[in-house]
Amino acid sequence: MTIKIAEKLPEGSLAEFIEVESEGCSLGPNTFSVADLSKGKTIAIFGLPGAYTPTCSAKHVPGYVEHAAALKAKGVDEIWCISVNDAFVMGAWGRDLKATGIVRMMADGNGAFSKALGLDADFSKFGMGTRSQRYSLLAVDGVVKQLNIEEGGNFEVSNAETMLAQLS
To answer: Where is the Thioredoxin domain (predicted)?
Structure first.
């Protein structure tokens, strides 16, 4: 069942490649509880099929990087990109797209969180296995306030511009 507006984000964990060691975070992949990370925060989350894929690399992530300051000015505390890739790939992709420190590149390595959201998709015909659908959502204190799910291979409603307009 697909998550809906007013529902709480499911239990789960995501991994992030940490570039600079800090208190509580070691250098390299670190695993975080979604509930812990989202508590008391407003988070713009967008999910996409895969790192280094064409639309994801050319439009989806760059749009959130470009509009990050405007999103934060509208009350967004953090921006997360979730993909069914490992934390090493997500970290490298974030560096390549100049997203580090702007968008948290969160790895859903086995697709468990995407599946718990009901937003997993079978990309086997492309040789990619189970991935995430393309979507965006706004979570406030772990509760979904906005949800934008793309149909088919479209990129029309999960972009940063739509999220920004929904915050206005």
So the answer is: 3-168
